[in-house]
Amino acid sequence: MITVKNNLYKAAIFLIGLLVIFGTYYIIKIQSIRGALITEGIVKTNYMHGINKSDFGSTISAEIQFYANDSLVTILGPEGQPMNVGLIVPILYQTEKPGDAVVYTFDGFWLHGLIWCILPTIFWAAISLSVVKVKDN
């Protein structure tokens, strides 16, 4: 058990942990943008996948095509987010791996990882708030 003077120190420990979790995520995302190219893709169809692969059933994603390195590349958009056929969307890709491209919107680029930050945040809250005790006066 760690004992601190007051609740301000306890809150600071908790917030530093959150800063590390979300700061790491932000740095990783910024590194993936570095050297990437932005182009436009067009939604060709909405593709249903995952049928009978889990207890959750299937999900739908937009199938998007764009040109990279003089070839046509097809990717799936964010899961569970159908898009209108013919819609033009921004695409972010690395020239070495155009098949790993992502839709460059908040939902397509940032949201999925932010949702995954919830799990370490809950874990950090449980640990930091239960292990750190405020000293009685």
Structural summary, described in words:
- Helix 1 runs antiparallel to helix 3 (118-131).
- The strands form two sheets. This protein has a five-stranded antiparallel beta sheet. Strands 1-7 form a two-stranded parallel ribbon.
- With 137 residues, it is an alpha+beta fold.
- The protein is built from three helices and seven strands, in the order βαβββββααβ.
- A hairpin with an 8-residue loop joins strand 5 and strand 6.
- The protein has two domains: 2-31 and 118-134, no CATH class; 37-109.
Please summarize what this structure is.
The protein is of the alpha+beta class. The protein has 3 helices and 7 strands; from the N terminus they run E-H-E-E-E-E-E-H-H-E.
Secondary-structure blueprint:
Blueprint lengths: L1 E3 L2 H27 L3 E13 L9 E10 L2 E6 L11 E6 L8 E2 L2 H11 L1 H14 E3 L3
Parallel strand pairs: 1-7
Antiparallel strand pairs: 2-3, 2-5, 3-4, 5-6
Helix pairs in contact: 1-3
Strand order of the largest sheet: 4-3-2-5-6
What fraction, in percent, of the residue positions are helical?
A: 25-40%
Mean pLDDT across every amino acid position: 86
- Taking all Cα atoms into account, the compactness measure Rg is 21 Å
End-to-end span in angstroms? 17 Å
Spans of at least 5 consecutive residues with low confidence: none
* Tally of structural domains: 2
Question: How would you sum up the major sheet?
Answer: 5 strands, antiparallel
Number of helices, counting only DSSP H or I runs of 4 residues or more: 3
Order of helices and strands: EHEEEEEHHE
Beta-strand share of residues: 25-35%
> How many strands in all?
7
* Strand-pairing-aware structural class: alpha+beta
Overall, the morphology is elongated
